[in-house]
């Protein structure tokens, strides 16, 4: 995949995660709210992994 295509995919994943977080805030059912939050977290983690900006890249000794 090209860098531009990957960047677009990452942006889409992050936008979807934000949409899910907003939906979770509006959800009245606690189980649905948690499901949406979990899915948003998974998408964010996945986008960080794909984009190479995961927290594992940070040196904890700094």
Model description:
The longest helix is centred in the N-terminal third of the chain and has 24 residues. Helix 1 packs antiparallel against helix 2. The termini are far apart. It is built from two helices and no strands. With 62 residues, it is an all-alpha fold.
List SSEs in N-to-C order: HH
Count of alpha and pi helical runs: 2
Task: Outline the biggest β-sheet.
Answer: none
Poorly predicted ranges: none
Please tell me how large the radius of gyration is. Answer: 14 Å
Which strand-content bin applies to the residues? under 5%
The helix-and-strand class reads mainly alpha
Strands, count: 0
Mean pLDDT: 84
- Cα distance, first to last residue? 33 Å
Main attributes of the structure:
mainly alpha; 74% helix; elongated; 62 residues
């Amino acid at each position: 995949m090209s860098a531009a295509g990957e960047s677009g995919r990452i942006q889409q994943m992050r936008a979807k995660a934000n949409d899910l977080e907003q939906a979770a805030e509006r959800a009245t059912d606690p189980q649905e709210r948690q499901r949406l939050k979990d899915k948003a977290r998974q998408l964010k983690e996945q986008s960080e992994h794909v984009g190479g900006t995961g927290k594992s890249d940070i040196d904890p000794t700094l």
